[in-house]
Amino acid sequence: MGAHLVRSYVTNPDTEPDPLKPAGFAPDLGFAERKERVMVATQEQMNAAQLPVEQRDYCAHHLLKLMKCKRDNWPNFLACKHERHDWDYCEHQDYVMRMKEFERERRLLMRKKRTEEAQVA
Amino acid sequence: MAALGGRWVGALFKGKGTGVTVFMSGTRAASGISKDMLPGPYPKTPEERAAAAKKYNMRVEDYEPYPDEGRGYGDYPMLPAKSQHERDPWYSWDHPDLRKNWGEPMHWDFDMFIRNRVDTSPSPVPWNTMCKHLFGFVGVMLLMFWLGETFPAYQPVAPKQYPYNNLHLERGGDPNKQPEEEKHYEI
């Protein structure tokens, strides 16, 4: 934990990806085919539920189900465990995908550096 | 009082006596102080200095008037400018709240040096040490904050992906302008 900070500031500042910038490589580089992410909740549905902008991601359909379940079961605040778990699991998978994207970017940067050094040598 | 005739009128205009003694001839109030007990002009001869020291209940060796620079101090003694906070709190003073004994010579600014007002107590640590500690600490903290801004700590994750062309409409984008198409993939 924190090894990436030492890498990005001390040892390998040129091959660590910037967490704020989007990917610098083509999304299909290294993949034969890639599955697109599907957005299930529509914009009208998210508007009707008045979701904050930060929560209008690819897991919004689970969140909408959870909100409906909570509204229907109030005051039983222990009722919506299944829906909450679904939303949490979707968010977890989204975070794992973010980690994998970061690692992919890093390996592509290291590969680029290796090819450049091989060309120079 | 008035039965003694109008003698108080004469006393009033002749300037005999001070305070209420003017109206009550033959009586003397505690506030009726005699002229020789009041402060006088700057002492020039050693005899005048001795007399002034005796007047102020001080030893001749300790008595030192203010310099004669026309500032109106007269023969009033120049005492060290230390407030009553610095006096021993455990000694049994005649006036415990003023930390003063009866008849003691009072500083010119005594009313300023009472314990509710100006405090000249020395700082517990030398002034330079206090400055070094404070500015050293503040400087180190500012340095650390600057380092944190220049080299922020972050989680090793890519930025979060949002649908509908990065929520172009939800973030207030122009509905007529076509946003740049962005596709997101699973990994």
Automatic annotation (TrEMBL), chain A:
Keywords of the record: Disulfide bond, Electron transport, Membrane, Mitochondrion, Mitochondrion inner membrane, Respiratory chain, Transport
Q: What InterPro entries does its record include?
A: NDUB7 (IPR008698)
Q: Which GO terms describe its cellular component?
A: mitochondrial inner membrane; mitochondrial intermembrane space
> What Pfam families does this protein map onto?
NDUF_B7
List all membrane-crossing ranges.
none
Tell me which positions the record assigns to the signal sequence.
Answer: none
Topological type in the membrane:
Peripheral membrane protein
Q: Where is this protein found?
A: Mitochondrion inner membrane; Mitochondrion intermembrane space
* Superkingdom of origin organism: Eukaryota
Establish whether keyword Disulfide bond is in the entry. yes
Relate the protein's function as given in its record. Accessory subunit of the mitochondrial membrane respiratory chain NADH dehydrogenase (Complex I), that is believed not to be involved in catalysis. Complex I functions in the transfer of electrons from NADH to the respiratory chain. The immediate electron acceptor for the enzyme is believed to be ubiquinone.
Q: Which family does it belong to?
A: Belongs to the complex I NDUFB7 subunit family.
Task: Identify the PANTHER family for this entry.
Answer: NADH DEHYDROGENASE [UBIQUINONE] 1 BETA SUBCOMPLEX SUBUNIT 7, NADH:UBIQUINONE OXIDOREDUCTASE B18-LIKE SUBUNIT
Q: What is this protein called?
A: NADH dehydrogenase [ubiquinone] 1 beta subcomplex subunit 7
Automatic annotation (TrEMBL), chain B:
Pfam families documented for this protein: NDUF_B8
Q: Where is this region: Disordered?
A: 168-187
* Primary localization class, coarse: mitochondrion
**Does the UniProt entry include the keyword Cell cycle?**
no
Its GO biological process terms? mitochondrial electron transport, NADH to ubiquinone
Q: Does the keyword Transmembrane apply?
A: yes
Keyword annotations of the record: Electron transport, Membrane, Mitochondrion, Mitochondrion inner membrane, Respiratory chain, Transit peptide, Transmembrane, Transmembrane helix, Transport
Q: Which InterPro entries match?
A: NDUFB8 (IPR008699), Ndufb8_metazoa (IPR016551)
Kindly state one GO CC term assigned in the UniProt record.
respiratory chain complex I
Q: How does it sit in the membrane?
A: Single-pass membrane protein
The regions listed as transmembrane in this protein's record are none
UniProt-annotated location(s): Mitochondrion inner membrane
Task: Fill in the subunit field for this protein.
Answer: Complex I is composed of 45 different subunits.
Supply the PANTHER family for this chain. NADH DEHYDROGENASE [UBIQUINONE] 1 BETA SUBCOMPLEX SUBUNIT 8, MITOCHONDRIAL (PTHR12840:SF1), NADH-UBIQUINONE OXIDOREDUCTASE ASHI SUBUNIT (PTHR12840)
Please give the function described in this protein's UniProt entry. Accessory subunit of the mitochondrial membrane respiratory chain NADH dehydrogenase (Complex I), that is believed not to be involved in catalysis. Complex I functions in the transfer of electrons from NADH to the respiratory chain. The immediate electron acceptor for the enzyme is believed to be ubiquinone.
Protein family: Belongs to the complex I NDUFB8 subunit family.
Name this protein carries in UniProt: NADH dehydrogenase [ubiquinone] 1 beta subcomplex subunit 8, mitochondrial
What's the source species for this entry? Acipenser oxyrinchus oxyrinchus
Point out the gene that encodes the protein. Answer: NDUFB8
